Amino acid sequence: MDFSFSDEQQMLQDMLSRLVREHYGFEQRDQVRRSAPGFSEAFQAQLAELGVLAVPIDEAHGGMGGSGVENLVVMQELGRGLCLEPYLESQILGGGLVQALGSESQREALLPALAAGELLLAVASEEPRTHYRPEWTETRAERAGDGWRLTGRKSVVIGGQAAHRILVVARTAGEPGECDGLSLFLVDPAAEGVQRRAYPTMAGPWACDLTLEGVMLADDALLGAAGGAFEALGHQLGHAMAAQCAEALGSMQQACELTLDYLKTRQQFGKPIGRFQVLQHRMVDMTTELELATSMTILAACVADEPASQERSRQLIAAQHVVKRAAQFIAEQAIQLHGGIGMTWEYSLAHHARHLVMLGHRFGDDDRHLKAYADLLEAS
Amino acid sequence: MNIHFSEQELAFRDEVRAFLADELPADIAAKVRLGKKLSKQDHQRWQAILHRRGWYAANWPLEYGGTGWSVVEKHLFEEECAAAGAPRLISFGVNMVAPVIIKFGTPEQKAHYLPRILDGSDWWCQGYSEPGAGSDLAAVKTRAVREGDHYIVNGQKTWTTLGQHANWIFCLVRTDPEAKPQAGISFLLIDMESPGISVRPIITLDGAHEVNEVFFDNVRVPVANRVGEENDGWTCAKYLLTHERTGQAGIGISKAALAHLKEIARHEVIEGRPALEDPLLRQRLAEVEMRLMAVEMSTLRILARAQAGGVPGAESSILKITGSEIRQAISDLARRVLGPHALPFLAEELQLEHDGEPLHADYSVAPAAQYLNLRKLSIYGGSNEIQKNILAKAQLGL
Ligand SMILES: Cc1cc2nc3c(=O)[nH]c(=O)nc-3n(C[C@H](O)[C@H](O)[C@H](O)COP(=O)(O)OP(=O)(O)OC[C@H]3O[C@@H](n4cnc5c(N)ncnc54)[C@H](O)[C@@H]3O)c2cc1C
Ligand SMILES: Cc1cc2nc3c(=O)[nH]c(=O)nc-3n(C[C@H](O)[C@H](O)[C@H](O)COP(=O)(O)OP(=O)(O)OC[C@H]3O[C@@H](n4cnc5c(N)ncnc54)[C@H](O)[C@@H]3O)c2cc1C
């Protein structure tokens, strides 16, 4: 057993940590967040140049073939800086889906460009009635000549506002609720019949809603076998969830540091508020949650690379549950311990808190994962 | 033992219900239900309607234009208003400074300020907190120095709720820096239009402008604007805080919020069924509803005691803690039930004039922002930690 980073991983962490500090000061971030595309193109270019964008991409396609642990290293630093670039959605989930489902020519067409930062992907998995479960997809793709005709609505596509291509989950067969019949299509958001409405999210990054009205797709827009995307999608969502845990971890660490610092400096009743035992214990509870979340994030990063199994699913769901609970607890207590200051937009803590709570709205909150785990418990 | 309202009280409740059915503007009620921001005009419209009926100053004695209602009647009125989706009254004038003026003010102060509160001429805000004086309110540093018939005020107040709408502010100021903290404070009424006052917005984490910083730079305030004796402002401050704490459980607001949450859950879909049928969500709803029932019953017990002439004591801290936790829990569920649709941050859509197509549904815009905004409930009005300190000391003798 060895829980330490390799030298390369440590170097990656140091490099990113420095880069994030340079690019993601509070003011800089607020500027970036305000206007389209909702992230820093300069920072994204730096990530490309330093090879960070290539980390999770397969070595055969211009990437570095990084494991779940490399994803952990990257996402933790991006989370610490509350970075707004769609790394998770584009590089990890988008790239992972292309690798898992794409043909060799599709991979060759997309992955090197993705690794080089010339292509941005987004994944449209949510709809008005999916509630984190892709098997409830209603968007349909029907055969039309040699290609496909796509119709439906997609909600809250994170990074979709700037993506060059969007991977759309659609039903080519079956009914909502069935896992069979789901397919994955590569859609050009500029294509006729695609409408996107962009907006910032509560978590920080921007997203868009998509209306798809009879969008005509060529045959090679389909990734993988028609109707057979569900398993690969589930497996790649597992990678994304592990990465999201790491992102949360970085942000939780910051929130805890800021709060601890505040307890030592804020004076009321003639002493630092950190002298009040109730606040000491609360801070200890936060740190304890952080500790457990760290452990589960490591677990998730390591099992993400394993082939699909019920055990892997259970562990990833458990990690999401523990981390998301910790994230909300830490966010709420960090605000509470700061008093009014914790509620002000002009202080980075508020943005960590927003991020930590709202990341429960991608891939599901702790209660959804509690229920998912309970369902698997019965089966085991 | 009888846990029911009397015939007379029930008749009163029906009267309130009928009034609300007739008079509460539907557009305002809809905004309240959907969690949209109310404009100053919305508040003023509702206040005027209540004033016409003689019900605006529910807590004042009859002689000043109040209602003379019993504590139970006041409670019923508040709860019915909340349940119907009426805006919560901005309490700084009618329910904070007015009781202080009625209790400690001179006849001239009463004659001047009270009618102006009743008819909506003045909008008040509360200038207690300062950067260095939050929970430790007695640490206020804003300085008032006597100069003939005036005080010259210098300093800063913060977290001033809706100060951007206000033309008057009541302040705790330090008049004797040598005395013990509580002993050197006076209670001043200050015209916000006075030269030397500036107001700066503080944007909160939900993106809203609700609180402000208020700066005082050599502001001249007539000595006649002092309520109570010089250096005896703490008495007014404490009296006001007990008023601030009543009705804090917000039972009616929680009931309305819970009903709205169930309505959302009827429309949202989880695993192909209305979210309201999701077993885990139902369990969460059940938890909060049962707890709300317990807090309501506790409120009634305290009311009955007050009706019989008892003074509400430390128990009101229990109501503040549990009531705020329940409201926060409901807002937490309202955001969760929306799933991914809670994510869009459309601050402009919280404004009233926006009539663009909502992204998902009209009810999906506000819950996440409201969840964030309601973190304040456990911070202000005496934080929940401070309430527990009060309970430990006053109720338990620790
Ligand atoms: C089943 C059992 C087996 C044991 N076996 C042994 C044994 O084999 N040998 C032995 O030597 N002892 C033994 N103990 C004793 C044990 O170590 C003591 O019970 C323990 O140290 C607590 O002391 P106390 O019971 O006097 O409680 P106290 O110290 O009086 O504590 C009472 C409560 O006050 C809290 N408290 C105390 N100080 C603080 C503080 N500064 N801040 C916040 N909270 C505080 C405590 O957490 C506790 O909740 C045993 C106890 C039990 C219950
Ligand atoms: C949205 C909002 C609106 C407000 N509106 C107004 C207004 O209109 N007018 C006005 O005057 N004020 C207003 N306030 C201010 C409010 O009253 C203060 O925020 C509150 O008193 C807490 O003070 P603080 O923010 O300085 O936090 P602090 O007092 O610094 O508290 C920080 C943390 O320490 C804890 N703490 C402090 N002392 C102790 C102790 N002895 N034991 C244990 N824990 C302790 C607190 O509970 C909190 O968790 C508002 C605040 C907010 C957030």
UniProtKB/TrEMBL annotation, chain A:
| Top-level taxon | Bacteria
**Pfam families tied to this protein:** Acyl-CoA_dh_1, Acyl-CoA_dh_M, Acyl-CoA_dh_N
Q: Could you tell me the keywords of this UniProt record?
A: FAD, Flavoprotein, Oxidoreductase
Where the record annotates domain Acyl-CoA dehydrogenase/oxidase N-terminal, the positions are 6-118
CC cofactor: FAD
Could you give a GO molecular-function term held by this entry?
acyl-CoA dehydrogenase activity
Q: Where is the Acyl-CoA dehydrogenase/oxidase C-terminal domain?
A: 234-360
> Residue ranges of the Acyl-CoA oxidase/dehydrogenase middle domain?
134-214
Stated family: Belongs to the acyl-CoA dehydrogenase family.
Name of the protein in question: Alkylation response protein AidB-like acyl-CoA dehydrogenase
Q: Which organism is it from?
A: Halomonas campaniensis
Classification lineage: Bacteria, Pseudomonadati, Pseudomonadota, Gammaproteobacteria, Oceanospirillales
Automatic annotation (TrEMBL), chain B:
Q: Where is the Acyl-CoA dehydrogenase/oxidase C-terminal domain?
A: 231-394
Cofactor dependence is on: FAD
Instruction: Give one Pfam hit by family name.
Output: Acyl-CoA_dh_N
Q: Which UniProt keywords apply?
A: FAD, Flavoprotein, Oxidoreductase
* An example Gene Ontology CC term for this record: plasma membrane
Gene3D superfamilies (alphabetical):
Acyl-CoA dehydrogenase/oxidase, N-terminal domain, Butyryl-CoA Dehydrogenase, subunit A, domain 2, Butyryl-CoA Dehydrogenase, subunit A, domain 3
Domain named Acyl-CoA dehydrogenase/oxidase N-terminal is located at 6-120
Molecular function (GO) terms listed? flavin adenine dinucleotide binding; oxidoreductase activity, acting on the CH-CH group of donors
The reply on keyword Flavoprotein is: yes
Q: What top-level branch of life does the organism fall under? A: Bacteria
Family per UniProt? Belongs to the acyl-CoA dehydrogenase family.
What name does UniProt use for this protein?
Alkylation response protein AidB-like acyl-CoA dehydrogenase
Q: Give the originating organism.
A: Halomonas campaniensis
Q: What is the lineage of its organism?
A: Bacteria, Pseudomonadati, Pseudomonadota, Gammaproteobacteria, Oceanospirillales
